[in-house]
Amino acid sequence: MAKWTPKHEAPEPLEGPVVATVTGGTILWFALFVVQLPFYGWFADRDLLWWVWCCAAGGFLGLIGLWYVRGRDAALKRHAAERAAGAAPADPAAS
């Protein structure tokens, strides 16, 4: 089997309001969890409790994602500020 080689460069990643998107998704997951809580017994009777806990897991994973994208956004802004100031990014290996 021959190795596949790309014929062109990959496009630049799309940048958008990532923090707002993850925040909105996290809020939506938690809202769905809260809306399903009054029907917990109904879900339990039909062996569909995974719906409830899937929403809870989505909300908690969204909190981890929110922590991650906020750090990424801060690092991108820090890098852009260093680049605009004309300073080379600090190299931790040089210390």
> Mind describing the biggest β-sheet?
none
The succession of helices and strands, N to C, reads: HHH
**Count of alpha and pi helical runs:** 3
The counted number of beta strands is 0
Shape label: flat
Query: Could you give the distance between the termini?
Result: 46 Å
Can you offer a commentary on this structure?
The protein starts with 17 loop residues before the first helix and ends in a 10-residue tail after the last helix. It is mainly α. The protein has helices spanning 18-36, 40-45, 49-85. The model has no long low-confidence stretch (mean pLDDT 90). It is flat, with a radius of gyration of 21 Å. Helix 1 packs antiparallel against helix 3 (49-85).
Brief synopsis:
The protein has helices spanning about 20-35, 40-45, 50-85.
SSE map:
Blueprint: H1 18-36, H2 40-45, H3 49-85
Helix pairs in contact: 1-3
Q: What key attributes describe this structure?
A:
flat, 95 residues, single chain, mainly alpha
